[in-house]
């Protein structure tokens, strides 16, 4: 986000309270509303603003249309201690993932690792927003997600969409800050493509493909039968293609809910794993190795014209620290899209903080 796109900063706590109030006002249980708002604001704090409060209007629209359940618990499909499967029952995705993480961390402390598969979840938001919580407890967290109700990514060599962008996140502790990896099997995301198309902008490179199979930088092709290219593009897209298949198999296959069921809308399938290093060589040994790995990366001489090598998540954690001290920088227009909902529900928009 450039300085020109930031109009004002808002207190993180105030944004969380506002978001939670919005969701509670439409009938979401308080615990769930706070979880959803917390993950959306965390995404904004890290700089992932396409997956922060910008998603709230879409969630509210889904609730109004009956596409998200607001109360109750997930259905336990299977539970074998270190392996758990839930039917998410279209409950709020961030709440489901946070619940699954807590369960997995508790059980990883006993078994060394724990995996939870969640089918039929509502949208889970920004995957990076979950990673820090586990790393701060000395745990390693892996999340694969897919959207079986959506297909915008063509398989390598094809022209018709068959897969979702299939994000993957992996976070692990070091002796210093955690490493937070959040990437996808596609070159770009659906939300970024929608934003650029709405703003009449293009990508810096041809990261999409039109319906005839020609690479393009125009995000509006998605509205005319175009597709998002897999990671690696038209030259080496077999890498992203294989990765996308892996994510969909893990999240949909292991949860037992996905494309074979013909879901619609903002449904997600999720597969998360938590590892406790103390059950292996120990946390000190883990940190010793990850410190050496990250030090080798940081010490690599930068390419001409570039700054020092950074670790994944490093810039986001810096943004988050600034957001805690100075307020969360929201892109111009994000709160404005929530104004109609706030007015409808009798809520005031957050005010600028006095930092």
Automatic annotation (TrEMBL):
Belongs to the LDH2/MDH2 oxidoreductase family. SUPFAM superfamilies: L-sulfolactate dehydrogenase-like. Pfam families: Ldh_2 (PF02615). Keywords: Oxidoreductase. The keyword Oxidoreductase applies. It comes from Muricoccus roseus. InterPro entries: Mal/L-sulf/L-lact_DH-like_ah, Mal/L-sulf/L-lact_DH-like_NADP, Mal/L-sulfo/L-lacto_DH-like_sf, Malate/L-lactate_DH-like. This is L-lactate dehydrogenase. GO terms for molecular function: oxidoreductase activity. PANTHER family: MALATE DEHYDROGENASE, OXIDOREDUCTASE-RELATED.
């Amino acid at each position: 986000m450039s300085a020109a796109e930031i109009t004002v900063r808002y207190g993180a706590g105030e944004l969380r309270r506002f978001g939670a109030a919005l969701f509670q006002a439409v009938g979401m249980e308080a615990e769930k509303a706070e979880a959803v708002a917390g993950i959306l604001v965390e995404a904004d704090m890290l700089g992932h603003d396409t997956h922060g409060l910008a998603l709230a209007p879409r969630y509210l629209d889904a609730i109004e249309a009956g596409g998200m359940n607001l109360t109750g618990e997930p259905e336990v499909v299977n539970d074998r201690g270190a392996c758990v499967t839930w039917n998410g029952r279209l409950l709020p995705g961030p709440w489901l993932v946070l619940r699954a993480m807590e369960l997995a961390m508790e059980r990883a402390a006993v078994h060394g690792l724990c995996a939870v598969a969640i089918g039929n979840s509502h949208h889970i938001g920004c995957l990076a927003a979950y990673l820090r919580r586990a790393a701060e407890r000395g745990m390693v967290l892996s999340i694969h997600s897919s959207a079986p109700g959506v297909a915008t990514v063509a398989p390598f060599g094809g022209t018709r969409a068959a897969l979702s962008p299939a994000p993957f996140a992996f976070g692990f502790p070091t002796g210093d800050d955690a490493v937070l990896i959040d990437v996808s099997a596609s070159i770009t995301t659906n939300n970024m493509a929608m934003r650029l198309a709405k703003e009449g902008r293009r990508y810096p490179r041809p990261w999409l493909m039109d319906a005839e199979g020609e690479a393009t930088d125009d995000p509006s092709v998605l509205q005319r039968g175009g597709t998002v290219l897999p990671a690696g593009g038209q030259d080496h897209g077999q890498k992203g293609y294989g990765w996308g298949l892996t994510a969909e198999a893990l999240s949909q296959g292991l949860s037992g809910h996905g494309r074979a069921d013909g879901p619609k809308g903002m449904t997600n399938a999720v597969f998360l794993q938590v590892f406790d290093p103390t059950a292996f060589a120990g946390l000190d040994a883990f940190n010793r190795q990850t410190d050496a790995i990250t030090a080798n990366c940081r010490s690599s001489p930068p390419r001409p014209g570039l700054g020092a090598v950074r670790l994944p998540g490093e810039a986001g954690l810096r943004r988050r620290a600034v957001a805690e001290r100075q307020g969360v920088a929201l892109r111009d227009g994000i709160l404005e899209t929530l104004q109609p909902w706030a007015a409808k529900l009798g809520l005031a928009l957050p005010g600028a903080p006095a930092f």
